[in-house]
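Run log, item B.
One chain of 72 residues. Sequence copied directly from the ordering sheet:
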Amino acid sequence: MRATARVDRTLCRGTGLCEVMDSRLFSLSDDGTALARPLGPGHDPEALLEQLQDIADCCPTGAITITTTDEE
């Protein structure tokens, strides 16, 4: 399974909560909006999905969406 995070930059208000929750997964761009950071191999997919979903659920504007695929 593979999880992918996407940030809708039109919804993002740059609160930085996602980066505070996990700076390995998110950072703020120069314009102050969130960017999803790619992770290399070697991460537990279930734990990663759970962490991404927690962050998306906490996003105050709902700008983060998570999709999954069955590919590794």
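Observations after the first pass:
- The mean pLDDT is 92.
- The first helix runs from residue 17 to 21.
Flagged for discussion on Thursday.
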